[in-house]
Amino acid sequence: MYKALADNPSSPEELAKKTGTDSRCMREWLAAQAADGYIRHDAASVRFWMTEEQAYALAGQAGLAFIKDAFARWRNTRLFPR
Known about the structure:
Elements: H1 2-7, H2 12-19, H3 23-35, E1 40-42, E2 47-49, H4 52-58, H5 67-77
C-alpha cells in the first residue's frame, strides 16, 4: 500500500480501488498512518500522500533504508533474545 501511495496523492477510495482493498479499511489504515506520522494528510481535500523521505523509507527498496528490510536484518542478527 505504501508503494501505491508513493506514486501520487490519493483519496481512500482511489487507493482502495488501486490496491483492491475495502475502502472502509483503507480509510482507517490511512487515518492511523497519518496520525502516526508515516504519511501526510490534507483534511480539506481528503487526500493522503508521502514525502520523498517517507516514500524512500517505506516504499522504496534502497538497501538498509527500506524499513521492512532493516527490521528483517535486525531480527536475523539475533543480538537480542526473543
